[in-house]
Amino acid sequence: MKNIKNIIIAFVSILAISCTDDIQDTNREALAPETAPVLLTPTSTFNTVLQKANQNNLATSVVWNDATYSGTATVVNYTIEIAKAGTSFAKPVVVTSTTNRFKEITVGELNTAILTAGLVPFVEHQIDIRIKSSVGTTGSGAAQYSNSFAIKATPFPSWPNWGIIGDATPTGWGSDTNLDYDLATQKYSITIHLTTGHFKFRLDDSWDLNYGDDGSNGTLEAGGSDISVAAAGDYNIVVDFTAKTYTMTKL
């Protein structure tokens, strides 16, 4: 009988605690956006040429004023977003996130974000940057957005830098013409005017790794023979350095 009485007391205690928690949850004030964050730096005067050799170095410090929310105090999450200038952040790319009101961005982080936004390397781009504030564990609740600045940056390719070189190309054997890389197909390509002559593919403007075609059969060999161009004209060249194949189509 005594044990039954103890069990009843324990049950009543648990029920009371549960009811108290429910009351406290009900009394919690709902969160609501109040003041959006204000981006301070970088401003529109920012212009940088990003370099692969410096990818671990500081590119810029992003600083903003805190966002505020009415209601029960909670942690505010901040996300640094970029997008191609003039697109109204239709497809924002996240650079990084933090719960502080500042964040140091490395050259590599900024470069990756710019390429993810679909912008090509070796070209100066105008990029909009802003801060998104939110609450909750998913970082999606009560979102607020800061003002934005249009900054300028020239990214480098985060993939191997392959080029074409030879007396058939516009710059001869003196320098490379960089190939474009397609993230979707993982192939390189270029549309280029070639004269009669020869060319090869090489990595990072160096002869340490270069490809030619020993059998003139569309298959690449390391250090292989120069590739011949029999007729001058505009060509579309597509190269798969994984499969070691290429195509050359006269336009």
What are the main properties of this structure?
single chain; 251 residues; mainly beta; six-stranded mixed beta sheet; elongated; disordered N terminus
Could you describe the 3D structure shown?
The protein is mainly beta and 251 residues long. The protein has 2 helices and 21 strands. It has helices at 2-27, 107-116, and strands at 32-35, 38-41, 47-49, 58-65, 68-70, 76-84, 93-98, 102-106, 125-135, 141-145, 149-154, 162-165, 177-178, 180-182, 187-194, 197-203, 210-212, 221-222, 227-229, 233-240, 245-250. The strands form 5 sheets. Strands 3, 6, 7, 9, 10 and 11 form a 6-stranded mixed sheet that branches. The longest helix is centred in the N-terminal third of the chain and has 26 residues, at 2-27. It is elongated and about 75 Å long. 25% of the residues are buried.
Reconstruct the topology from this structure:
Layout: H1 2-27, E1 32-35, E2 38-41, E3 47-49, E4 58-65, E5 68-70, E6 76-84, E7 93-98, E8 102-106, H2 107-116, E9 125-135, E10 141-145, E11 149-154, E12 162-165, E13 177-178, E14 180-182, E15 187-194, E16 197-203, E17 210-212, E18 221-222, E19 227-229, E20 233-240, E21 245-250
What's the quaternary structure here?
single chain
Q: What structural class should be given to the helix and strand makeup? A: mainly beta
**How many distinct beta strands?**
21
Helix content: 10-25%
Low-confidence stretches: 1-28
Distance between the termini: 97 Å
Question: Which sheet architecture does the biggest sheet show?
Answer: 6 strands, mixed
Global mean pLDDT: 88
Q: What share of residues are in beta strands? A: 35-45%
Helix tally? Answer: 2
Globally, the shape reads elongated
Rounded radius of gyration (Å): 29 Å
Order of helices and strands: HEEEEEEEEHEEEEEEEEEEEEE
